[in-house]
Amino acid sequence: MADGFTVDSGELATQAAALDGFAARADTATDAGRHVTSLDDAYGLLCRPFADLLKEPQQRGVDTLQATAENMHELVTGLGDTAKVYREAEEKITAVMQALVRSLEAVSEAPRVGGGN
Asked: What would the mean pLDDT of 54-64 be, rounded to a whole number?
């Protein structure tokens, strides 16, 4: 049987923040690609026929970048939600354990094993 695992909710939040930065960069790349794809004169007058040939592959690239950015944003949200769930569970368990410790400390004398109380 496995020894279990531990989760550091702060580390999850840190990872979510780092991934959010990459998602923002993917958004920027998507916007830039969308802009270039929409330009008819991006390659100059003589190369305009090449621009028409490149439009479809460029659009596929933009669509892929956009899907990547959307997936990254969803992952950021998921990591943040997961960190929150773990943090809340840890807080609840901590509260229960502290209440248990207080109730044990309130007992004046613990019973002894084997009787004699």
From this structure: 92
